[in-house]
Each structure stands twice: as structure tokens, then as C-alpha cells.
Amino acid sequence: DAGITQSPRHKVTETGTPVTLRCHQTENHRYMYWYRQDPGHGLRLIHYSYGVKDTDKGEVSDGYSVSRSKTEDFLLTLESATSSQTSVYFCAISPTLAGGKGTQYFGPGTRLLVL
Amino acid sequence: KNQVEQSPQSLIILEGKNCTLQCNYTVSPFSNLRWYKQDTGRGPVSLTIMTFSENTKSNGRYTATLDADTKQSSLHITASQLSDSASYICVVRGMDSSYKLIFGSGTRLLVRP
Fold it and tell me: I want to staple B58 with a disulfide (CB 3.0 to 4.6 A). Which of A11, A31, B29, B63 is the partner?
């Protein structure tokens, strides 16, 4: 998985609790992304980062926040988890912005269940 | 709305057979198209990337084709193996955003012995 780890790999939580997912890379890539994957839907971008402390919203950012204090770490926080946020979350990295010809490399995913 | 539609949703084939997966998109203008393979419980892995000026690209037993006029792409798998069992995702990037990739919902392929 191209030097990308995600933690935790599985999590069960209750509605209303905050949850933080961590993505760690060893590739020193500039760009990092958080996606969610749901049955019947393609991967959807939540937030992305183009450098330390530089982040921007994706298409499904409501209810999520991110932080990137170091090149290697990108955190995704669900401020108050809801059942609609039950999903599989993937972190991705790339040396150039995703829309270019460069490849994105994906982590192994975090399966989150919100009860 | 820009969309990427894949067909079939699922497919079962016998080991050693060939198969073709389809991707139709409405993204316009269009920059590049990618095919990813996603094994169960894993993240997607890139197979091919084609720009609008390319009409075919191969990666081993995987061959992707692109017809930018009809906005169609296909992924052909030759001499399938059990390890080809996975979801295959078509991804399109338009010209209007530097970061946004539009993902199809995938075709789930099962190769049986």
C-alpha cells in the first residue's frame, strides 16, 4: 500500500461522539486526501491537503474536519458522528495534484460503524 | 451533472476466459481516464491512466481502450486468473477542476476455477 498506513482499521462508535482517523505516509508526498466509499457510490472526496497546514474541502465535507501538522500525517475528525457517516474511509497520497497524470496511492482503509 | 457509469455491476467468469468491462462518462471537457483495481478489504490500485489523446494502454493482461468521441472506455482482461477477482473502478478527471476525480461505482468481477 505504497507506504501508507491508516489507524484504526476498524472502529465502532456511538452517535454524537467525536472520532479521529489517522493517515500516515512514509513517501513524503505533498498531497493527501480523505475519501469515503459507500455501496452503490463511487469514492467521494471529503477533504484534501496540498501541504502542511494547507487543506481544502471536497464534495462531501459537511460534518468532517481535517488537520495536517506534519507532512506525513493527515487526520480526519468526525466532530459528532452520525449513522450516515458509517462508511469505509480511504486515505490517498500523490506527489502531484490528483487531477494531473500522476497516480494516487491509496491506504488500506478504515471501516467505521456508527451506532 | 458529470457522471461515470460502469457496466455490468457484477460479472462471473471461468478462469482462463477473457472479459471486457465498460465505462461510459459524461464528463466534459475531459482530461484523463483511469482504471483502478480494488481487492476486497484493500485500497484501489492504479492499472492504467490515459489522456484524451490516447486510445489504448496496456498493463500486462489488462488493456484499456478509450473513445473520447463517444465518451466510452473499456477494460479488457485476457486469460483471467483467480487473482483477478476484485472490483474495477473507472475514474475520470474533467478540465474544470485541478483536483476533482469522478469515480464510477465499479464492476465486481469474480473469477471461478
Answer: B63
Side-chain half-sphere of B2: how many Cα atoms within 13 Å? 18
Rounded to an integer, the average pLDDT of A2-22 is 95
Min Cα–Cα distance to chain B from A57, Å: 11
Q: How many residues does chain A have?
A: 115
Give all strands (DSSP E) within B1-113, no chain letters: 4-7, 10-14, 19-25, 30-38, 45-51, 56-59, 62-67, 72-77, 86-94, 101-103, 107-112
Instruction: Look at the block and give the residue holding cell 490500485.
Output: B45
Nearest Cβ partner for A99 among B41, B46, B99 = B99
pLDDT of residue A63: 95
Convert the pLDDT of each residue in B83-110 to its tens digit.
Answer: 999 999 999 987 766 567 889 999 999 9
| Burial degree of A57 (CB within 10 A; 0-12, 13-18, 19+) | middle
d(CA A34, CA A44): 9
Ramachandran angles phi, psi of B83, nearest 5°? -70, -10
Task: Give the whole-angstrom CA distance, residue B107 versus residue B29.
Answer: 24
> Which of A45, A101, A103 comes nearest B100 by C-beta?
A45
For residue B46, the chain A residue with the least C-alpha distance is A103
Determine the Cα–Cα distance for residues A4 and A18; give it in Å rounded to an integer: 23
